[in-house]
Specification:
The chain is an alpha/beta fold. Helix content is 28%, strand content 20%. It has five helices and nine strands; from the N terminus they run ββββαβββααβαβα.
Length: 253
C-alpha cells in the first residue's frame, strides 16, 4: 500500500492553500509542494493540521482536533483579534530571519505586520489588496471596466500605460509597492536591522517594483511565497497521536 502523503491546509478568503509533503524534494526544505486552489468541499485525506481565515463550508468535515487556533501560534503579545494568518506569518518570518521583521502579505488584503527584535507583535497596517481595489474602481465608476485577472501584466510594458485596463493594473501595483516600501522605511527607523518578508499571491508582481529601491537588496527583502503554510508545517510537522489512518495517496487533493 502506498505511503500516506501528508498535507496541511490553510483556508483563505478566496482560495484554499495546501502544503503536500512529497518524496521528490520539490519546493521546500522537507520536499514540500504548495498548491493554491479554488475552495473545495472536502479533502481526499484529512490534513495533518489546518487553519482558516476564510469561511469553512460545513460539508468539508475537517476534524476539529487538528484545527490550529491563534493561541497555538507562539507569537509573543499577539492580541486576541489578530488574524491567524498574520500571526503565523509574523512568527515564522521572525524565526527564519532572526531579526525584527515586517511581513508584507499581498493577498486579498495587503497586511503589514511588524515583529520587533524580541519576537513580539508590534502592530501593523491593513489596506485593500489588488483585487479589492480594482473591483472598487469598476463598481464605483461609470467608465472603468471590471477585470477578471487583477494584476496580470501589471509590471510588463510601459510605466505610463495608455490603455485603461493596463493603467488600472499598473496604478494599483505601484501603489501597493509604494505602501510596502514606505512601511519598511518607517519600520527600520523604529527597529534597526528590520527586514521585509514578502508573501501572498500578488507578491511576485510587487517584487520587481520593490527591488528598484536601492536599500532593498537581497539581505533586506526576502520573498517567501508560502510563508503561512511553512509556519503551519513547522508548528504541526506530524499527525497527532492516535489520528485515524487516511486512505492511500491520491493524485487529487
Amino acid at each position: 500500500m502506498p505511503a500516506r502523503q501528508l498535507r496541511w491546509l490553510l483556508i483563505g478568503n478566496s482560495r484554499w492553500h495546501w502544503a503536500l509533503d512529497g518524496a521528490d524534494g520539490l519546493g521546500g526544505e522537507r520536499g514540500l509542494q504548495f498548491l493554491h486552489l479554488p475552495p473545495q468541499a472536502a479533502a481526499v485525506d484529512p490534513p495533518v493540521a489546518w487553519a482558516a481565515v476564510g469561511p469553512v463550508p460545513p460539508q468539508a468535515a475537517l476534524p476539529l482536533e487538528t484545527r490550529l487556533a491563534l493561541e497555538d501560534v507562539p507569537l509573543a503579545e499577539a492580541p486576541p483579534w489578530l488574524g491567524l494568518d498574520r500571526a503565523l506569518a509574523g512568527w515564522w518570518a521572525a524565526r527564519i530571519t532572526g531579526s525584527p521583521v515586517l511581513v508584507a502579505d499581498a493577498g486579498t488584503v495587503l497586511s503589514l505586520t511588524l515583529v520587533d527584535g524580541r519576537g513580539r507583535f508590534a502592530g501593523g497596517r491593513l489596506m485593500a489588496g489588488a483585487a479589492l481595489q480594482l473591483g472598487a474602481m469598476a463598481s464605483g465608476t461609470e467608465g472603468l471596466p471590471s477585470l477578471d485577472r487583477p494584476l496580470v501584466g501589471a509590471v510588463s510594458g510601459e510605466s505610463w500605460p495608455r490603455a485603461t485596463e493596463v493603467a488600472m493594473r499598473r496604478g494599483v501595483a505601484e501603489g501597493l509597492a509604494a505602501a510596502v516600501l514606505e512601511a519598511g522605511r518607517q519600520a527600520r527607523a523604529l527597529e534597526p536591522g528590520c527586514r521585509i518578508v514578502l508573501t501572498g499571491g500578488d507578491g511576485p508582481t510587487l517584487l520587481p517594483l520593490l527591488r528598484r529601491a536601492s536599500e532593498l537588496g537581497e539581505e533586506v527583502l526576502l520573498h517567501r511565497p508560502d510563508l503561512c503554510l511553512e509556519a503551519l508545517v513547522a508548528l504541526r510537522p506530524c499527525p497527532p497521536a492516535g489520528a485515524a489512518q487516511a486512505r492511500p495517496r491520491s493524485s487529487r487533493i
